[in-house]
Amino acid sequence: MPLFLKPVFQERIWGGTKLTEFGYDIPYDNTGECWAISAHPNGANTILNGRYKNYTLDQVWEENRALFGNDDREAFPLLTKILDAQDKLSVQVHPDDAYAKAHEGEYGKTECWYILDAEEDAEIIYGVNAQNQETLNNMIDNREFDQLFNTVKVQKGDFYYVPAGTVHAIGKGIMILETQQSSDTTYRIYDYDRTDKNGEQRALHLEESKEVIDLSQTSPNATPKALTRDDEHYTQLVASPFFTVEKWNVSQQVNFKKPQDYCLVSIIEGSGEIIVDGEAYELEKGQHFVLTSEDNAVQFNGELTMIVSYV
C-alpha cells in the first residue's frame, strides 16, 4: 500500500501563511517550508497508514529496503518540499555531492522548482554575471550584488532546474514545489542585511560559496517534454542523474505504471482517489505519499494534478 506521510513544517524568516491553502494546520505565522516527503534527519515524515503507521520514513528505509527496490544508497535520496516565500529568500548556493560529502557529510543539493503560484512581476535569482573566478571573488568581496545576480520573471506553471553550484533565490510572493536531493546544506551569499526575531543577522558562507559556485550555470535550462507511457500522457519536467520529475494531469481515470520500483507523489490540485491492488484511498490537494515496490496495479480516478519524482 502507498505510504501516506504527515508533513513536517519549518519556521523561516521569509515564510508566511499560504500553506493553509493546501489544507495544512500550520504551526507558525511565518511557516516557510512543508517537508512533504522526507527521510532527512532534520525533518523525517511520520507514516499515517498501514503496517508502518507511526514509523518515520527513514526508519522504514533502514528496516525494509525491499520496499524501495533494494536501493543500496546510504540514505533516502530525495526530498519534496512546498515553500511559501512571503518574503524573498537569501541568495544562496548548494554544493555538489563530492564537496558536500567531504565537508558536510551528506548529499549535495541539486534541486528543481515547479511554480505553484506567483504574484504579478514576481522574480527569482538564477545564475551570476561573472565570467571567471577572479571576477566572481572580487564582486562578492566588494558586495557588488546588484551587478552579480541574474534575475528572471516567473509565473504560475513555470519550471526551473537548479543544479548544484547554481546561485539562486526564490523571490517574494512565490510558492513552489521543490524536488531536491535529500540534503540540508545551504551556503548563503547575501541575506539583505535582515535580522531574525532575536535581532541577529543570519550567517553568510562567502568562502564556501566561492568554492562551489559553477560559473557555467547562468540561465535556466529546463526543457519539459510531453511524453506517453502505456498510452497515458504526461509532462516530463526534467530527467537528470539525480532525479526525474513528471507532471500528471488526471481527468477521470489513469492507469499508472510506476516508472521505477518506488516513486514519490504529491497532489497539487484537485481531488479523487488512488486504487492500489484493489484497495481505494481518497486523495486531495496537499497529500503526499510514496508508491513502493509492493504497489503494482495503480489507478488514479478523479480530477487531479500531481508531481511524480523518482531516481
Automatic annotation (TrEMBL):
Task: Identify the cofactor(s).
Answer: Zn(2+)
The protein's UniProt keywords, in alphabetical order, are: Isomerase, Metal-binding, Zinc
- A matching Pfam family: MPI_cupin_dom
What Gene Ontology molecular-function terms does this entry list? mannose-6-phosphate isomerase activity; zinc ion binding
- The UniProt annotation places Zn(2+) binding at H94, E111, H168
Give the record's cofactor note, including how many are bound. Binds 1 zinc ion per subunit.
Read off the InterPro entries from this record: Carb_Metab_Reg_Kinase/Isom, Man6P_Isoase-1, Man6P_isomerase_Firm_short, MPI_cupin_dom, PMI_typeI_cat, RmlC-like_jellyroll, RmlC_Cupin_sf
Q: Which residues form the Phosphomannose isomerase type I catalytic domain?
A: 4-102
User: What Enzyme Commission number(s) appear in the record?
Assistant: 5.3.1.8
- Would I find Iron among this entry's keywords? no
Answer whether the UniProt record assigns the keyword Metal-binding to this protein: yes
Catalytic center at which residues? R188
Q: Which Gene3D superfamilies match?
A: Jelly Rolls
Instruction: Name the PANTHER family on file.
Output: FRUCTOKINASE, TRANSCRIPTIONAL REPRESSOR MPRA
Q: Which family does it belong to?
A: Belongs to the mannose-6-phosphate isomerase type 1 family.
NCBIfam families according to UniProt: manA
What is the name of the protein in this document? Mannose-6-phosphate isomerase
Q: Which organism is it from?
A: Staphylococcus lloydii
Q: Taxonomic classification, please?
A: Bacteria, Bacillati, Bacillota, Bacilli, Bacillales
